[in-house]
């Protein structure tokens, strides 16, 4: 291959996250709803019949489908399916910072409004046990408890330590992740949902 061929190929390509073609892609919607006492954030409780994370609190969302127009449409479609509402009831959708998880997924969170004046929620019982809302102002006043989750490196038994400097004593770089816990009445909001919630609250706090 000639130099010009290489340069032209590099010039034409758009960089992405290395290895992202092998990642599963998910979108999540942080739903804002207007009630008599002001803005609320809507949460779901996952159905107790679900195979993964039954009974945990989450935002509507799910894995991208090949028919989705983009990541925002994935969030709208999943929200529509889970809450039993039309996509047209979801508006003013804006992206939050996306996340790369250590488990091979990219999560695209969005914040958006659901107009409850023109629609009635009919949660999909196969996926949603219940829904509830929390006043945004109350969430801004809540101080989450923060705990550390430490990740460690465990090479497989056949790992070729003899091929690397330091061998079995190699100084692997590890990290800790903040895990947020929000407590509201009898509900515990944690994990990915709490991380997205905390990120959203920080964003609006920046605007005073």
TrEMBL record:
Domain annotation Nudix hydrolase: ranges: 23-157
Molecular-function GO term, any one: coenzyme A diphosphatase activity
PROSITE patterns associated with the record: NUDIX
CDD domains: NUDIX_CoAse_Nudt7 (cd03426)
Keyword Manganese listed: yes
Listed cofactors: Mn(2+); Mg(2+)
Keyword Ligase tagged: no
InterPro entries documented for this protein: CoAse (IPR045121), NUDIX_hydrolase-like_dom_sf (IPR015797), NUDIX_hydrolase_dom (IPR000086)
Keywords from the UniProt entry: Hydrolase, Magnesium, Manganese, Metal-binding
Pfam families: NUDIX
Protein name as annotated: CoA pyrophosphatase
């Amino acid at each position: 291959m000639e130099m010009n061929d290489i340069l032209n190929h590099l010039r034409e390509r758009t960089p992405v996250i290395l290895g992202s073609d092998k990642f599963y892609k998910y979108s999540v919607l942080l739903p804002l709803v207007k009630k008599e006492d002001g803005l609320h954030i809507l949460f779901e409780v996952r159905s107790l019949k679900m195979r993964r994370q039954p009974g945990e609190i989450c935002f509507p969302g799910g894995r991208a489908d090949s028919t989705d127009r983009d990541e925002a449409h994935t969030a709208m479609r999943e929200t529509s399916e889970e809450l039993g509402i039309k996509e047209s009831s979801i508006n003013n959708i804006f992206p939050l910072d996306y996340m790369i998880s250590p488990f091979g997924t990219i999560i695209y969170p969005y914040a958006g409004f659901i107009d409850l004046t023109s629609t009635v929620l009919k949660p999909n019982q196969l996926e949603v046990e219940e829904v509830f809302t929390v006043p945004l102002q109350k969430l801004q006043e809540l101080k989450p408890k923060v705990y550390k989750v430490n990740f460690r490196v465990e090479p497989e038994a056949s790992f070729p330590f003899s091929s690397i400097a330091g061998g079995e004593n190699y100084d692997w770089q590890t990290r800790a992740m903040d895990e947020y816990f929000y407590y509201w009445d009898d509900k515990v909001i944690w994990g990915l949902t709490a991380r997205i919630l905390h990120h959203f609250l920080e964003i609006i706090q920046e605007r005073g």
